[in-house]
Amino acid sequence: MSLDTFLQHLTNGISLGSLYALIAIGYTMVYGILRLINFAHGDIFMMATYFAFYGVTTFMLPWYFSFLIAIILTGALGILIERTAYRPLRGAPKISIMISAIGASFLLENVAIVMFGGRPKPFPTPEIFDKMVQIGNISVQRLTFVIPVVTFVLLYLLLYLINHTKSGMAMRAVSKDYETAGLMGIDVNKTISFTFGIGSMLASVGALLWALKFPSLLPLMGVMPGLKCFIAAVIGGIGNVKGAVIGGFILGIGEIMLVAFFQDLSGYRDAFAFVMLIVILLLKPTGIMGEKISEKV
Amino acid sequence: MKKRNIILTIISMLILIVVLFFIDKNLDSYNTRILNLCAIYVILALSMNLVNGFTGLFSLGHAGFMAVGAYTTALLTMSPDMKAQNFFLAPIIKPLANLTLPFFPALIIAGLVSAFVGYLIATPVLRLKGDYLAIATLGFSEIIRVVFTNTQTLTNGALGLKGIPDTTNIWWTFGMAAVTVIIITSLINSSYGRALKAIREDEIAAESMGINLFKHKVLAFTIGAFFAGIGGGLLGNLLGTIDPLMFRFILTFNILLIIVLGGMGSITGSIIAAFIVTIAGEALRFLDETMNLGFITIQGIPGLRMVVFSALLMLVVIFFRHGLMGTKEFSFDKIINKFSRKPSEKGGDQ
């Protein structure tokens, strides 16, 4: 393989990795605060693309406006799901909450099938992302640069939010111990809703970039990215935002390189993430950046 | 067991056999097929309940074990000609090409292969807990599916297998379901079963009482995989065609819905819910299809049925967390005590 092809694959890997990272952050935030896999995260991701699609096609809005509305609507959807599927079960056995999460995920998927139809819809890609950029011998879509930039800007903003604002402090307090946080005067429910909102909005940004890269919308399009990004979050150490980004990159670059170097194995592309998950869980169950939580009796 | 209960059990078994006999003779193929599916879902739900409900391991890998069972049974029961027809892209690997077994040994081998796969998966995965376990088992079931899609010479890849002999009939399904009920009930009521329930209630407490957590978890997981394989084998030979896409997560979801609705940790509940969910699944088909009421035509919306099911799962979990039966079981004593005026022997409410 020549250097050029390698670089081509690497840029693809980085842009896929950034997408995984954006979505993984949402998982990790929700897990950090509720100790719960938000199974519906992948489907929130899917809904965001449809919101933007209808904004552009049905309501004829300019793409930036329609993207903005999609992001806001997705955040609201995340909060709605938290209220209906997770809040009534706070304090219930974990297995019940997980089942409710799976129910929410299937509900969203099937509502999407009913409302939007099962046929793939072409996502309207604005022209400015489409242009090819020539660097040396490799030509890259402009979007490929936009994605990592957006990811890092959002990561920076998010870290600022978590570490330097009052809401962020509340989030950290709730994730440490939500009963005590409640006693200290933090509105636990509001903080959890806020976290869901932020996580869903990040997922929606990821989704819109995803749809620009792979412009075909399907009601089940969120399932695989959803699972893979959860795995990315686990690899990085779930509950840790920086870890999620690292996990996202490992998974994205690994996946592209697997297909690039071992073409015979390209059919196993989707299995790669799961193999990674199992390896990491066996070697270092807390992930790369995770901290050990010991169980108290 | 009291003598009266043994007699009552035998009588109800006989009634069931007579009813099955009438179903076999009189019911049309569509309705028979639904009943067959009900019985297969009983097997699947019980095997999942053993792992999820009784041992408290949240495993989502059922579809994978079913795939293993379905493919094994299908490959062992298909005639060599049929196999040659199916494998036109790449010929099937040698020993399987000419091997044809009767249905029963094929089914048992399918169960054993599936149990073996379950055992292999259990050893690494059961070191995990809670949601990690859920995702890891889900991951394994996806890996099994991806592998089956790519092993052209063994499973015929994405094309799937067609023309599987439709050996499964009402006697096979209900017979295997009855065997499953008996085995799982005996297991649950044995010392192993008590250990499993102890693990479900509190792992740390169970461990300090001297229960070997890992051994018991692996046991439950392997037995669960065995029956999932049997269920998958019955399903494959009922439908006549299988392909890897059949064994997606949605299949596991259906079984999960059954055990949640019936009550996690109740054999009776799983049986009742398996019938309810399967029959309701067919009855609600009208939601997906266009209905013609003579004077008005209602446009059906494809997919609405699954919306109802997923909403149902959420409603059950949020509002009736214990499902239909909770952890209670059917017993003749309770029913008789209810109808006779004699106060319950043990006193109080049970």
How would you describe the overall organization of this protein?
The complex is a heterodimer of chains A (297) and B (350). Chain A is mainly alpha-helical and 297 residues long. Chain A has one domain: ABC transporter involved in vitamin B12 uptake, BtuC (Orthogonal Bundle), CATH 1.10.3470. In chain A, 73% of the residues lie in helices and 4% in strands. Chain A is built from twelve helices and four strands. Chain A has helices at residues 3-34, 41-57, 63-86, 94-116, 127-130, 142-164, 166-176, 178-183, 188-213, 223-236, 241-261, 269-283, and strands at 121-122, 132-135, 138-141, 216-217. Chain A has a two-stranded antiparallel sheet with strand order 1-4. A two-stranded antiparallel sheet of chain A has the order 2-3. In chain A, helix 1 packs parallel to helix 6, helix 10 crosses helix 11 and helix 11 (241-261) crosses helix 12 (269-283). Chain A is globular, with a radius of gyration of 19 Å. The model of chain A has no long low-confidence stretch (mean pLDDT 85). With 350 residues, chain B is an all-alpha fold. Chain B has a single domain (7-339), classed as Orthogonal Bundle (ABC transporter involved in vitamin B12 uptake, BtuC), CATH 1.10.3470. In chain B, strands 1-2 form a two-stranded antiparallel sheet. In chain B, strand 1 and strand 2 form a beta hairpin. In chain B, helix 6 (103-125) runs antiparallel to helix 12. The longest helix of chain B is centred in the middle third of the chain and has 27 residues, at 213-239. Chain B is globular, with a radius of gyration of 21 Å. Chain B starts with a helix and ends in an 11-residue tail after the last helix.
